[in-house]
Design brief:
Layout: E1 2-4, E2 12-14, H1 32-41, H2 47-69, H3 72-98, H4 100-104, H5 109-137, H6 143-171
Antiparallel strand pairs: 1-2
Helix pairs in contact: 2-3, 2-6, 3-5, 3-6
Length: about 170
C-alpha cells in the first residue's frame, strides 16, 4: 500500500502491513563502508572449485555406472553426459576469470553482466553441440546413461549453493 504524506512534501512512502498488522521497516541502502564490510564478511566462492567438484562427481558417476552395469558403452555414456556439463562450465569459468577484458570491465556492473551473458550463451551452445554430436562420438551410446551423467553433475550446482549458504550462516 502506498500513501502520500503531505508533511514529507509529496514524497511517496511505501508501507507494507505484515500478517500481524505491523509495518515493516523502510529499506535503507548501505553506505560504501557498510557494503565493503558486508562483502568482506561473505565467504568467497571459486568457479574453479565448482568445476573441479563437477569433474570429480562425473568421474565418480562413471565409476559407479561401471560397477553397477559392467558395460563399457554405459560408462562412456555417463562420462560423456558429465563432460557435457563440465567442459562448458570450465570454458565459462575461464572466460569469466581469465580474460583481460573481464578484469578491465570488472568495475562496471552492466559490462560485467553483458560478459556473463555472453559466456553463458557460449556455454549453452557448447552443451547443445556436445549433446547433438553424442551419437557420433560415443560408440553404442546409451541415452539413459548420458542423461544420468548430465543430471548428476548438474546437481553439483545445488550442492555448491547449499555449501555456500551454510558457510554464510556459520559466519553470521
Amino acid at each position: 500500500m502506498q500513501r502520500v504524506d503531505a508533511e514529507s512534501q509529496g514524497q511517496v512512502e511505501s508501507l507494507t502491513d505484515g500478517e500481524d498488522g505491523a509495518q515493516e521497516p523502510e529499506f535503507k541502502p548501505l553506505t560504501r563502508e557498510e557494503a565493503q564490510q558486508w562483502r568482506a564478511s561473505q565467504p568467497s566462492f571459486s568457479l574453479w572449485r565448482l568445476v573441479v567438484a563437477q569433474l570429480l562427481v562425473g568421474l565418480a558417476a562413471g565409476a559407479l555406472a561401471g560397477l553397477l552395469t559392467q558395460s563399457a558403452p554405459v560408462v562412456w555414456s555417463v562420462l560423456y553426459g558429465a563432460a557435457a556439463v563440465v567442459v562448458p562450465s570450465a570454458l565459462m569459468a575461464y572466460g569469466l576469470t581469465s580474460s583481460a577484458l573481464s578484469r578491465l570491465l570488472a568495475g562496471y556492473a552492466q559490462a560485467a553482466f553483458a560478459g556473463f551473458l555472453l559466456w553463458e550463451g557460449v556455454k549453452v551452445l557448447l552443451v547443445v553441440a556436445m549433446l547433438w554430436s553424442a551419437p557420433w562420438i560415443v560408440p553404442g551410446l546409451n541415452w539413459l546413461g548420458l542423461l544420468a551423467g548430465l543430471v548428476v553433475v548438474l546437481k553439483v550446482y545445488w550442492f555448491g549453493f547449499w555449501i555456500q549458504a551454510r558457510r554464510a550462516n556459520q559466519n553470521s
